[in-house]
Write a structure and sequence with these properties.
By secondary structure, the chain is of the alpha+beta class. 45% of the residues lie in helices and 21% in strands.
Length: 988
């Protein structure tokens, strides 16, 4: 009874379910508000796909101020749904990996009303477009616009507020939206519309990329693959059960309050995009990722290269440890050496590995994601030497032996085969190997089994030859009884090198085991290849071996002559059957290869056409054409954009080189030909800017890059290069220079009033002295101070007159010097001269001295720079005068007691510094950042132009490669000029 009671008490424990395996908690950050756009993830969670894969998933809602990429990269989310722009983060070393492209084509479109006058993209000119200003997010639309010549200067961009009423009310002409959303709303309102799609113009991006961080891949490599597969299952279910998925969204995920009809419309449109040109969800093409990245590059959004091998995540079927995954991440390619002439196992042809080794390595890449890099060698001995020197990480299809263990560890064997004997057809089949142990055999030099055979069969006679072909031919010719090789090697040789006069007659007891030889100084690598070889399925490896060899091996005992005759007849019949089978098989293979070749040709033609189209579009966007000049054939070829730049049609190509010369501006022809001749003589590339004279008299400016390929003898073979239309850039620069020149002139005119005041100050004293001398002479004459009848007084008068005339001449010379100083200042110095900053400061003060003294301003000097620099003297004086006059006016307007200006120079870290400081109390911090802006002035009541400091900055930055800035010191403003001693200090 007690036992029965105990049984009933414990029964609930046995009946309760076993605790389930704990789930890994992960999160997925969505890139927009809830809608059918994320139905696959909703269904993966609700239908238990994530749970079955071992995950407890949190679907994180989108917030307007968040960046999906940052949420994942900074660890706030495990996975994310991102736009194609996430590839830019990888190029900036932010380390993300794309797992799947849910939508094969982007739903991004521009929408216009049917009632508008917009029919083509060129009609966008002058229109208002509502889209995000972020060039990264709107790249496909921006690329589409630029390809048609529509730039920021042609259109007005309005910030996106996601209110479709802005388009309906005609406040904007075009609206950036989604193919799966806005068209439905407009249709429901009965409003007709037009769509402009980047995809239709060749700018077809992926959309909604499932991604994660490289760190998550390193830490959870296998589970990342499981999450991807569970997500794909969710999407497949969502698209095959649209009604059920929409019901779920309406119940739990409808934050936008969409109608059922709107969600179904969205679902059907997105399904088209998900299965666009594919029957599988989530596929990623490296070419498409690269093309997208190239468009970002053309738009100027990045300059760094893209690592395609890392950014696209491939699921490995091998369960590597974290340490092993980290190793593979830090070693993106495993280098290998191979036997360069040992078919069917391996050979090097056109720089690539072929044979069984190639198939095995391809299988490993497919199963594990490991990429391989061939180290080319000319012999097996060289391969072993390079492997011993650690230039190769592995050697595939190797047999382990003690000698090789000096440099290698060996993976678990993944293929086993026997050693066999090949003889002429006339020889009998062998039952006992000892019966032929005294025979002569041809063996390929360097084979691993030679020493083992010699040790086991001391009487056997082995003759080394250079190749399998030589071994088999020597047997056919009767030179040797037979040849010894592996089963695959022997079968391959009979199939390809024999005239059907040879056969396999026996095998040795010992088998050959093939492994990977792995450098023995890398324990992690051998661990990786142990797992890799164990993961290889026998049927997969056997298919690779069978692809190269058809084996016809018979092992029979010759007992009686009658049986042998029957056997020979049977073998002959089998041979005929086999031959017929073999021919049929080869015919099928040939037919398959022909069909494959046709398909490949179509694919190649399509890809070439697509690539050419992409290149043409890229060249059109960047205004860069390309050309190739075959110097051996005297033949010049241009790209489509080059014809457009030179304003020729493709039909006008009878003599492109002469057409090129005819288009060059007459004054630039010698320069262009001289530069090209020089590049051929010096064997160097060149870059050159010159003009083109068009038929209508307009001038284009182009930039050429050219490089030439030469033969080993130094003979030029092919010149190739690019030509870029830089007319807009040159004209803009000319306009800027013209504007700067005008502003400089305007600035100088603005200083003339100040200069006239300075001249007046400096002329005042000499003119007074001249007047005094003139009055003294006049008074002496009028008062009759001297009696000219007396020789002595007449002599004294002439001395008195000479003395006054000398004074007047001296004062006139002073006046002339003053005028010369100011006229020199107003002459622009087109050429730079060697001088010092201290010298220019002294000359500047000479012009300012009287004006500053008259205002009661004391000037202090702390001049400590004697270094000589190449400078534009008068322009630099203009800068000093600008700053000193500004300081003077501040001191006067603020009525500063004991006004002072301090001018100091000093040298530090190969820089020369000039500081001008006043004690006027400083500049208001609110306007400090604007003082160098053109036409900014605080002197409107004095008719200030606001150009002085702006021109000062231009003179310092562009004429002297320096910098000028201002800050407030203890007593007032401090203007600082910094000049770099280019080439170092010349003299001290």
């Amino acid at each position: 009874m007690r036992l029965l009671l105990l049984f009933f008490l414990l029964l609930p424990l046995f009946a309760s379910p076993l605790p389930s395996k704990s789930l890994q908690k992960v999160s997925l950050q969505l890139v927009w508000l809830d809608q059918f756009q994320f139905a696959g993830y909703y269904m993966a969670k609700e239908k238990g796909f994530y749970k079955d894969a071992g995950f407890e998933v949190e679907l994180k809602k989108f917030q307007y101020d968040m960046d999906t990429f940052l949420e994942v990269s900074e660890g706030r989310a495990t996975y994310g749904v991102g736009r194609p722009s996430i590839i830019l983060y990888d190029s900036l070393a932010k380390k993300i990996a794309i797992m799947a492209a849910i939508f094969q084509s982007s739903p991004n479109i521009l929408i216009a009303l049917e009632s508008s006058d917009i029919n083509t993209i060129k009609d966008f000119d002058g229109k208002v477009i509502m889209q995000t200003r972020d060039l990264v997010q709107s790249a496909s639309i921006s690329a589409m616009l630029q390809s048609k010549g529509i730039t920021g200067s042609n259109i007005k961009i309005m910030d996106h507020n996601f209110q479709l009423s802005e388009l309906i009310d005609k406040k904007v002409d075009l609206y950036s939206g989604y193919l799966s959303n806005e068209p439905y709303t407009l249709s429901k309102l009965g409003i007709k519309y037009k769509i402009f799609s980047p995809k239709e113009e060749g700018f077809d991006f992926y959309s909604d990329l499932l991604f994660t961080s490289q760190k998550n891949i390193q830490d959870n490599y296998v589970s990342v693959g499981k999450f991807k597969e569970a997500s794909i299952l969710g999407w497949e279910y969502a698209f095959s059960h649209i009604e059920e998925s929409v019901d779920l969204i309406l119940k739990k995920y409808n934050s936008q309050n969409k109608t059922r009809e709107a969600l179904i419309f969205e679902a059907k449109e997105l399904k088209k995009l998900a299965y666009y040109k594919t029957d599988k969800i989530g596929v990623i093409s490296e070419d498409k990722i690269q093309r997208t990245y190239d468009i970002y590059k053309i738009l100027g959004l990045t300059k760094t290269p893209l690592n395609l091998a890392k950014i696209i995540y491939n699921v490995s079927k091998v369960d590597f440890t974290k340490k092993e995954r980290e190793y593979l991440v830090s070693h993106p390619q495993i280098s290998f050496c191979a036997q360069p002439n040992n078919m069917p196992y391996s050979a090097i042809k056109d720089g690539k590995i072929i044979g069984i080794s190639s198939g095995i390595l391809d299988l490993i890449t497919k199963e594990s994601g490991i990429e391989f890099k061939l180290i080319k060698t000319d012999s097996w001995e060289e391969s072993l030497e390079k492997a011993a020197a650690r230039e190769c990480d592995i050697v595939p299809l190797v047999v382990a032996n003690k000698k090789r263990q000096e440099y290698f560890n060996f993976s678990t064997p993944f293929y086993t085969e026997p050693l066999v004997i090949v003889t002429r057809n006339s020889e009998n089949y062998i039952l006992d190997i000892n019966s032929i142990a005294d025979k002569d055999f041809a063996v390929v030099k360097g084979n691993f089994f030679l020493k083992d055979l010699e040790a086991k069969y001391p009487t056997i006679k082995l003759h080394e030859v250079d190749s399998l072909k030589e071994a088999l031919e020597s047997v056919e010719q009767g030179k040797y009884y037979g040849s010894i090789n592996t089963l695959m090697g022997a079968a391959y040789g009979i199939q390809y090198f024999s005239k059907i006069n040879l056969k396999i007659v026996g095998k040795f007891e010992n088998n050959v085991e093939l492994s990977f030889a792995v450098r023995n100084d890398d324990a992690t690598l051998i661990s990786i290849f142990d797992k890799v070889t164990k993961s290889l399925k026998k049927e997969d490896t056997q298919k690779i071996f069978n692809r190269w060899v058809s084996i016809n091996y018979v092992n029979k005992v010759d007992v009686w002559y009658f049986k042998e005759i029957i056997f020979i007849i049977a073998v002959f019949l089998l041979f005929l059957l086999y031959r017929e089978y073999f021919l049929k098989k080869k015919n099928k293979e040939l037919k398959f290869l022909q069909e494959e070749l046709i398909n490949l040709n179509h694919t190649l033609e399509s890809r070439i056409s697509e690539a050419t189209s992409d290149l043409d579009k890229a060249q059109e966007v960047s205004k860069i054409g390309s050309w190739i000049l075959d110097l051996t054939k005297k033949e010049l070829r241009w790209s489509k954009q080059t014809y457009q730049i030179f304003d020729y049609s493709k039909e006008e190509n009878s003599n492109l080189y002469q057409m090129f010369l005819d288009r060059i501006h007459p004054k630039d022809v010698d320069k262009v030909q001289s530069e090209y001749t020089k590049s051929l003589e010096e064997k160097t590339p060149y870059q050159l800017e010159h003009r083109l004279l068009m038929d209508d008299g307009d001038i284009k400016y182009i930039k050429e890059n050219c490089e030439t390929l030469f033969s080993p003898d130094g003979i030029p073979l092919i010149s190739y290069g690019t030509v870029q239309d830089i007319t807009d850039k040159v004209k803009l620069e000319q306009e800027i220079k013209k504007k700067d020149g005008f502003m400089l002139h305007q600035s100088r005119l603005a200083q003339m009033g100040e200069m006239m005041s300075m001249i007046a100050h400096q002329w005042k004293q000499p003119l007074s002295a001249i007047a005094a001398s003139q009055i003294s002479v006049k008074v002496a004459l009028e008062l009759g101070k001297y009696d000219f009848d007396k020789p002595q007084e007449r002599e004294e008068f002439f001395k008195f007159l000479d003395k006054n005339l000398e004074k007047i001449a001296l004062y006139v010379q002073t006046l002339s010097g003053t005028i010369q100083d100011f006229s020199d200042f107003y002459k622009p110095t087109k050429k730079s001269i060697w001088t010092s900053v201290d010298s220019i400061v002294s000359k500047s003060y000479k012009l300012l001295n009287d004006s500053l003294s008259a205002a009661g301003i004391t000037v202090k000097f702390e001049l400590q720079s004697k270094s000589q620099l190449k400078m534009h003297e008068n322009e630099f004086m203009q800068v000093i005068l600008n700053m000193v006059v500004n300081a003077k006016e501040q001191l006067i307007s603020k009525k500063i007691n004991n006004p002072e200006i301090t001018i100091r120079t000093y040298e530090e870290d190969k820089h020369i510094f000039l500081e001008i400081e006043d004690n006027a109390g400083g500049i208001d911090e609110e306007i400090m950042e604007y003082v160098f802006d053109p036409y900014f002035s605080t002197k409107h009541e004095k008719n200030g132009t606001g150009l002085g400091l702006h021109m000062s900055r231009i003179i310092i930055n562009e004429y002297h490669n320096g910098n000028i800035n201002v800050k407030n010191g203890e007593h007032g403003a401090i203007f600082t000029i910094s000049l770099l001693e280019r080439g170092g200090v010349i003299t001290k």
